[in-house]
Every structure is written in structure tokens, then in C-alpha cells.
# Entry
Amino acid sequence: APAVGEIFAPAKYCDAEKRKGIQYPKTRACTEARVACPDPETITGEVVRYCNCQTAKWETPDTTNCTHRWVAEMRSAIERGDPAEQISYRMAADLESTLSRQLYGGDITGSVSLSTDVLALARSQFGALDDRNQRQIRATNFTESFGSSGDHLLSPKAVPVWEELATPVRIDHASTLMGALEQSALLLADYTVDQHKRLQYDYWGE
# Structure
């Protein structure tokens, strides 16, 4: 049984602190602080940070719920049925610029989900085209930018963010992404008139 002094001991707290642009309030041990992700104009969600029971020290923040707003914009573009190659081009550009600043776990899970949906959109759009050359041009443009997105997501800069994801989530999303990248290469092969075209990427497709 705890000593009488322990029962009436003052509560322990983690000190308020600022880390990577996020201000965490003074928080009681054994509880979590929930704070808006940094830069709410461009990023949605909350950071969760736990104050350890035993040590009353902060644990590593969980930013996997932080997602840049462009992910939702791409989702809307897919639902509208915008040209798939335009969506994949914008995704690759957004991922590249986000990687140069700060990628979050929600950006990875959101991008992988978008990848499977934009791939299905591409198949339905390109399959409906009668002009074989037009189909090849659009499929090539789509696959080039789709592959660039995969390259950004699998680049060394993204690895620490993947490691923030829970192991089952990480494994599931990594295998989904690799499957989507392989499917995009098959899509291009299906619609290619000239069979000699090959695309090269740094981090996948070896």
C-alpha cells in the first residue's frame, strides 16, 4: 500500500513548453494535451502529447492526425472527376513542397488513400477514350507524376514520418502504396502503343 505521504503528495505536471512551433500547456501526469496542429490555415487536426505518469516528463508528440489541407482538396478533385493526370501532377507538386517544409503522418495516410482512388479514376477515364495515342499521352503523364508522388513518399526525408505511424498502419499503408505504384506501371503498359518507353524513379521500381 502507498505511504500516507504519497497519497497526499502534490500532483506532478509536465511543464509548459514550445517544441517545433507548437505550444504545449502545463499538463498533469497521466493525462494528454491536445493542441491544434501548427499553421491551422494550411494544416488540419490535433497533436496529442502524453505526460508520463511515472516521470512527469513529456513523451514524443503524436502528429499523425495532422494533415495538410491540399489532401482534402485532392479528395474533392477526385470526387468531381477532374482529369486524373492533373490530380496526380498536383499531388506530386504538393508532396514535394510539403516534404521541403514539414510532412506529417496524416499527409502520408491521406496521400496513400488518394493514390488508390486516383488510380481507379485514371483507369475509368483512360479506358473510355477511343483515341489510342491520346490514351497513351494521358496515361504516360499520369504515371510519370503518380510515380513522382511515390518517390516523394518513399524518400529518406519521409522515413522519420513513416516511423511515427503505428506499426500496423505503417505496414498496411506501405504495402498499399507499393501495390498502387505497380498498378500504375501496369496501367501505362496497357495503354502504351510504343512498348519501349521506360520510367525511372529513385526509391521504387528497381
About this structure: The first strand starts at residue 13 and ends at 14. The helical segments are 4-7, 69-80, 84-101, 105-127, 132-153, 159-164, 167-191. Residues 167-191 form the longest helix (25 residues).
